[in-house]
Specification:
The complex is a heterodimer of chains A (81) and B (614). With 81 residues, chain A is mainly α. Chain A is built from three helices and no strands. In chain A, α1 runs antiparallel to α2. Chain A starts with a helix and ends in a 5-residue tail after the last helix. Chain B has one domain. In chain B, α10 runs antiparallel to α20 and α13 packs across α18. Chain B contains 23 helices and four strands. Chain B has 614 residues and is mostly helical. The termini of chain B are far apart. Classes of the chains: A mainly alpha (81), B mainly alpha (614).
């Protein structure tokens, strides 16, 4: 596994843990995430999780999917690196 | 009040859209003008880079295109246009949609596909010269930065005002990503992946109804700015395609529910007037209500209608999307009809069936209560609307007109099935759903705008490539280009400025971007007129389309140009003097510059047309 992919995997796991904590624990026990008119730790945490969950899998699994590559190669006849 | 049955408008509207798609779209535009062929290799394959040039399934691309072009415009514009009654806005939406908007979108995609996926602005170089290209590109890039600023602000305000909409938006992204990974990585079929994603989405929907997510306006601007940078730089197959595909289901559900609502209200008649006046009093001229001032004491239906109703009938932003993200993902030229022409008709259906029809039905609250026997006033009171103080729907702001109209139509329909006991609860639920749908449109537009700004930025600097390739690479790097546009947009969305409003005789606080935002309605529609003229010239000069078919494109293009130019001049004369001084400088200057550019570009168009004829 390359360093970039390992970093992506760590970010993905971290963001999933943040989501699980905020959505399943904080959200369900208090009925809300954050406090109106304020920037609370919970709100910061889920915002960070929201950004990290987009970035993490992109680094971890970021290569162009094989089936997409094959489709392009079949249509154009050129070999993709 | 008039006696037009809801069902009549529903049937006529759907029939017109169906006929337009088959007879004008497929038989004329696809076969005679673009002469689309499944055998031509599209730029998505030819220039495949795994990031922006990536072939997409036509339904996925339809979802992307539809979700990107449908900002707040198809909703807020027609709601504001009800000042003229419901008849004129409906006619404009149908006419504009079929003969201008959908043609403009389809031809922008096809012209771009035939030019290697470059923007309609760059295509103008071949038809109108190099000057036209760079003027056009700079103009569009600035407009996109303005869109970013406005949408950062609108989305942040919506999330603060409706925190449950923030929860569903935050949950939506991982679900869409998960769907994309299931389909692309595990090889799961799109159908099965869709089922999994929709189940998760429904669970997220009910969760969000009960768990609001609170942040401040300023914090949302920062979060959305970071999101916009990341989302616009990532490969389209990873986030944009799956997200917009799933998002399209929300939007289809929104339109389908509007049709169901109209079907179950079949024997009720509109409680609103078909026509009030050709000169509407106190009309707000701008793409988004509530974000800025820009009110005309009298607004004549012509030439101001395209400045009030944007995306539902036609919008210049669509040509940037069509020749930006869409053309780079088109798998086959034959897909462009569904994606471009069909996508625009669907957006028209949002305006006609999900905005104009419900508002026309719910216009007079007392009349609606009397016709249906339902507790309309009591339900509205629960939503904070007193029907004694506000007896008709046009007494509400643009967004409220839409959410209340949509909610009431749904409540009337579902009360028919489950009885009057559900009226109040369904009204409140569907009013929230309508607000969510509006946010859904806004968020997708946000990161697509940044990706488009990046494309425009790259094309704007193509002259640098042969002179200094390293500098070109640095300046047009996808992360650098994304960050520049977002920082400028956020700078305009973040700070507050104190402005004196003479008509209210008080000082109010506004966000910086709103100083120039009132101009956006005009500049966006001017872009539509110029893009349609470019597409018409492409059909004439490159495709060699002649006779009646050519006129079918050229006449609406010239009509639009005359209308928008007259509208801009009227705006300078009638709206600018009433604006606060700071707005006069900001918005007034932008419109004045736009008028100058307008005449410069029409001159280049005429030269290009003469050259093509000779």
């Amino acid at each position: 596994m390359k360093a970039r992919e390992a970093l992506g995997l760590i970010i993905t796991i971290l963001s999933l843990l943040i989501f699980a904590y905020e959505i399943l624990y904080v959200g369900l026990t208090t009925g809300r995430i954050g406090v109106k008119g304020d920037v609370t730790n919970d709100a910061i945490l889920i915002s960070a999780g929201f950004l990290l969950i987009i970035l993490g899998p992109a680094l971890w699994l970021g290569e162009v999917p094989t089936n997409l590559k094959k489709l392009v190669e079949a249509k154009t006849g050129r070999k993709l690196s | 009040m008039d006696a037009t049955p809801v069902i009549l408008i529903l049937v006529v509207t759907l029939a017109i859209y169906g006929l337009a798609y088959v007879f004008y779209g497929k038989k004329i535009l696809e076969k005679k003008v673009a002469r689309a062929s499944p055998d031509r290799v599209t730029p998505a394959f030819e220039k495949f880079d795994g990031i922006d040039y990536v072939p997409a399934n036509k339904y996925v691309l339809y979802g992307h295109h539809f979700a990107s072009i449908a900002g707040a415009g198809p909703i807020v514009g027609p709601a504001l246009a009800m000042v003229w009654g419901w008849g004129l806005p409906l006619i404009w939406v149908l006419f504009g949609n079929i003969f201008i908007g959908a043609v403009h979108d389809y031809l922008a995609i096809m012209a771009s596909v035939r030019h290697g996926g470059v923007s309609i602005m760059s295509i103008s170089e071949n038809l109108m010269g190099r000057k036209a290209k760079y003027i056009f590109l700079a103009y569009v890039w600035f407009a996109l930065v303005l869109v970013l600023a406005a949408f950062f602000s609108v989305a942040s305000s919506t999330f603060v005002g409706t925190p449950t909409a923030a929860t569903i938006s935050v949950l939506f992204m991982p679900i869409a990503l998960f769907f994309g990974l299931l389909v692309y990585r595990t090889g799961l079929s799109v159908k099965k992946g869709t089922v999994v994603a929709l189940i998760l989405l429904i669970l997220a929907f009910f969760y969000s109804l009960n768990v609001p997510l609170h942040l401040t306006y300023e914090a949302w601007v920062v979060v959305l700015s970071l999101y916009s940078i990341v989302a616009a730089a990532l490969p389209v197959w990873y986030l944009l395609q799956p997200r917009d595909y799933i998002n399209a289901y929300l939007l289809w559900a929104f339109v389908a529910l509007a049709i169901i609502g109209a079907l179950f209200s079949f024997n009720y008649t509109f409680t609103g007037p078909i026509y009030t006046s050709f000169a509407g009093p106190g009309t707000l001229i701008g793409a988004l209500a509530g974000t800025s001032t820009g009110r005309a004491s009298i607004a004549y239906f012509w030439p101001t209608v395209p400045l009030v109703i944007a995306c539902g009938a036609l919008s210049g932003f669509h040509s940037v999307v069509g020749s930006g993200t869409t053309s780079k993902q088109l798998s086959s030229e034959l897909d462009a009809m569904l994606v471009g022409y069909g996508g625009m008709l669907t957006e028209g259906a949002v305006s006609s069936l999900a905005v104009i029809t419900p508002i026309a039905l719910a216009w007079n609250f007392a009349a609606l209560a009397s016709a249906t026997g339902l507790p309309v006033s009591e339900a509205l009171l629960k939503a904070g609307i007193n029907t004694t103080a506000t007896p008709i729907i046009t007494g509400l702001g643009g967004v409220d007109r839409f959410t209340v109209g949509y909610g009431l139509e749904q409540a009337v329909a579902w009360s028919r099935i489950f009885g009057p006991a559900v009226f109040e609860s369904t009204f409140l639920t569907f009013r929230t759903f309508a607000a969510w749908a509006l946010t859904g449109f806004v968020l997708t537009t946000l990161d697509t705008s940044n990706r488009l700004a990046r494309f425009a930025w790259r094309e704007l600097f193509d002259w640098l490539k042969p002179r200094n390739e390293l500098a070109y690479k640095v300046i047009t790097n996808r992360w650098v280009a994304s960050v520049i546009s977002v920082i400028l947009g956020a700078i305009m969305a973040y700070p507050k400025i104190e402005v004196y409003i003479p008509e209210l005789n008080k000082t109010t606080v506004v966000y910086a971007y709103s100083i120039v935002w009132p101009a956006f309605a005009g500049t966006n529609q001017l872009l539509a007129a110029l893009a349609l003229l470019t597409a018409a010239l492409w059909a004439y000069a490159i495709q060699k389309v002649r006779g009646g078919t050519s006129l079918l494109i050229m006449i609406p293009a010239l009509f639009l140009w005359i209308t928008v130019t007259a509208g801009l001049i009227w705006w300078l004369y009638a709206v600018v003097p009433g604006l606060p001084p700071l707005y006069q400088i900001g918005a007034g200057t932008v419109v004045a510059i736009s008028v100058v550019l307008d005449f410069l570009l029409i001159g280049l168009f005429v030269t290009g047309l003469r050259r093509a004829r000779s």
